[in-house]
């Protein structure tokens, strides 16, 4: 019997060394989770046996348990590197359609702009609008528009935040004022094709607390434009009764193609100070190519374009399991669900018990090399001791054989 007991010990120690060796080999693998061999003793059961008299039959490897403790975050400064700081897994879809889960966030872009892993599995997430508001809980592969540029947007609204000088001299009404006799500023609007349309705004004082605004479009003479009257209250704020004007802009390619643009002047003030322009805004832009990507802690993908615009391109999803140790490893840092793990619970970074994301970083392996080397030496001693048991039993058997 000692032979069988010692043999089981050799097998268990060998299996433990396999696990330790795998941990050490993957000490530098991104998102890798260490494992440990868990042993269980073996006893023979017999009817009527009295407890305490049975001798054990050896040892068996009861399980190889994965350790899902947090790994150290390593800063990489790569835009597509992302680490989970807390609980949760990335969900990816393998090329064969299999749903898999990983902690390795070293993602790449393929030629179509899909965010993928090193094995070609697609990173899954939620669709959002351009402002990053989630539109659905149905997961889909995340993709960046790396091919065609985002289309141009025609200007529909302009706003000017201007401070007018209350001590300015009232302009003579004998002749129309010229730009040199007025305060002025300009901004750029865009037509439906993204072509620039310069728009000038000129402010002339017509009476105490009263001004008029003239416009210049595509370099036209502001004196020929229709004056827009604006009035101020005694405290210098804009008279609420002042209507917001609508301008008619024309495309530079085809002057016959016109479109209306609302001019918001509600933030204008009149004080005893020099003329100042605090802010000029408009909501149009030209077409733009993708130039950069930022991943927020919440998982929102924000794409930056050459026209200065930023748009959300989706949100990275996270999933978790009631029993993460029940996941089955399938290689390349991925796991698949099993009956023991339970079904995945889906969410987003920072929601509920899910951790947040850290862009420009990767989660290192949680392998403790010092502990693994100590375990390896301990297991080696156990292997040697079991081998010594076989040797001793062999000597005992040899003594019996040699008896006369």
From TrEMBL:
Give every Flagellar hook protein FlgE D2 domain span.
164-285
**What region holds the Flagellar basal body rod protein N-terminal domain?**
6-31
Residue stretches making up the Flagellar hook protein FlgE/F/G-like D1 domain: 83-132
UniProt keyword list = Bacterial flagellum, Cell projection, Cilium, Flagellum
Cross-referenced Pfam families: Flg_bb_rod, Flg_bbr_C, FlgE_D2, LlgE_F_G_D1
Q: Which residues form the Flagellar basal-body/hook protein C-terminal domain?
A: 359-403
Compartment(s) where it occurs, according to its Swiss-Prot or TrEMBL record: Bacterial flagellum basal body
Its family remark reads:
Belongs to the flagella basal body rod proteins family.
* Described purpose of this protein according to its UniProt entry: A flexible structure which links the flagellar filament to the drive apparatus in the basal body.
Q: What is this protein called?
A: Flagellar hook protein FlgE
Name its species: Variovorax humicola
Q: Coding gene? A: flgE
